Amino acid sequence: MSLTLPNNIWSPEDLKELIGDLKQYAKWLAGYSIKQRVSSSSQPAEPPTLSPLAVSILHDLHERHALTQASVDKLIADLEAVEVVAPRLHFTFAAAPSNGLKKEFVRWCRDNVSHDALVSFSFNATILGGMVVRHGSHIFDWSFRRQILANRAKFPEVLRRV
Amino acid sequence: MATILQIFLIVDVFFVGVLATIALQHAIAHFRPRKQPETPPPAAVTAKDYVPPMMRERLAKESEAKFQDALTHSAAELQNTLGATAGQLDQLLKQLGAEIVGNELERYRADLAQLRTQAQTDMGAIRTEVEAHKTELEAQLQQELTAEKQRLIQQLDTKLADAVSSFLIETLQHNIDLGAQEAYLKSMLEEHKADFVKEVADEPHPAE
Hints:
The complex is a heterodimer. By secondary structure, chain A is an alpha+beta fold. Helices cover 52% and strands 15% of the residues of chain A. Chain A is built from 6 helices and 4 strands, in the order αααβαβββαα. Chain A has a 4-stranded mixed beta sheet. In chain A, α1 packs antiparallel against α3. Chain A is rod-shaped. The model of chain A has no long low-confidence stretch (mean pLDDT 84). Chain B has 5 helices and no strands. At the A-B interface, α3, β1, α4, β3 and β4 of A face α3, α4 and α5 of B.
């Protein structure tokens, strides 16, 4: 498996949606091929409405080699394999992250952790700031709330120094 | 001391008894002259024959007067002796009594001094013990006060920390600016990069 995920696919949901679209396209492509073999004069059915991401992937695939049933099936198999083995990271911020921030973090993860890392985001205002990163069962809590509570015993010392 | 006094008194009584006996013998001899054993008068010449009655009567009177004088003198001497002895005895008894009283007083004083010393020693020991107990109680009280003070300070610090934490948490969660935190978030990732990468590499990645 030498597939490299494009940077605009960063979450497991994106990947799942892409695989779903590709399967739908593969199904349509199979039907279309059969119809073409049976009757060359028949009008092709309308292709399914795909997400821009799926269109972009298929376009890239078509630029490399012919867009056949086999190549689409192989692309789907590769993506499903990535879905199984790719490390999944979940970032929680204190506010909803912007797309720019998401891209930055996805790029950082794929550069430093794994080239096919799947990254998802959420927000929780109670962490106040910083972030909480979850990978499997492990949680890295770098939130402000955690730091405030962990350093609660130092408050009296700080207040005495004021 | 009492034994010596008793011996002295017994000796005095003995002498007084001897003197009284002698005086009694003289008195008996005076009033009851002993009958001389009748010796056969000389056959030829007696005193009556040679002393005239007048002279014999005068001699008898003179003898009686002299005896009376001697007896009076002896009685006076005996009286004087008895008075002196009584005076001496009285003086000795006074001295003895004074000595005995003095000795008793001295012993009493010594006992009293010893008791006072003992009492002072005991009082000193009691005072020392009371002081030690007082010091111990003061130290214990001080220790308890310090512990209580520390406990109150700890309690105050805990409540203060809780209050500050609650205040920060309550205040900050309404004013979150994630854009301002972007640099900090990236620095956190870079700071914990090694642990993060190791954790991801070590743990299997089951599909969720």
